[in-house]
Amino acid sequence: MKLEFDIASGDFSKAGRASSRIKKMLKQLQVDPKVIKRIVVAIYEAEVNVVAHSVGGKMLAEIDGTGITVIVQDNGPGIEDIEKAMQEGYSTASKAVRNMGFGAGMGLPNINRNTDEFTIESELGVGTVLTFRNNF
Ligand SMILES: Nc1ncnc2c1ncn2[C@@H]1O[C@H](COP(=O)(O)OP(=O)(O)OP(=O)(O)O)[C@@H](O)[C@H]1O
Ligand SMILES: [Mg+2]
């Protein structure tokens, strides 16, 4: 089963759309609630990052018999130093974004903690691709 979502830049009211749809879907499939909780956290953080830090992108989720794989890709600006971005507390979020309660620098570490597999690829001026998977 494949699901696809567009993620618009700047629209925080719509962040959470993909994660809640996928949550519903996994509940219907009677996936272990602990697994659902973890993947929903990861998806939400990834959605917010596209909204907050990129010009926009999309998410693809594929559910198979043994787990869920999620690919989140955006069209830039890319991440300059992935190692730094992965550190807890590192954030380049704008003041406006911080005032909305984001920008603690915990999103990527949270994705890492809540997934079984996680990779980030990024190219400056091109974009960022996050790929993560949780097994049921
Ligand atoms: N899709 C992206 N495109 C460009 N830069 C990104 C992207 N995702 C993350 N980053 C960069 O990595 C940093 C760390 O991301 P992370 O999600 O850990 O923290 P945050 O988004 O700043 O704060 P929080 O997630 O706690 O609200 C961001 O501040 C930003 O500089
Ligand atoms: Mg974040």
From TrEMBL:
Sequence ranges assigned to domain Histidine kinase/HSP90-like ATPase in this UniProt record: 17-133
Pfam families from the UniProt entry: HATPase_c_2 (PF13581)
InterPro entries reported in the protein's UniProt record: HATPase_C_sf (IPR036890), HATPase_dom (IPR003594)
SUPFAM superfamilies, A to Z: ATPase domain of HSP90 chaperone/DNA topoisomerase II/histidine kinase
Gene3D superfamilies: Histidine kinase-like ATPase, C-terminal domain
Origin superkingdom: Bacteria
Protein name per UniProt: Anti-sigma regulatory factor
Source organism per UniProt: Draconibacterium sediminis
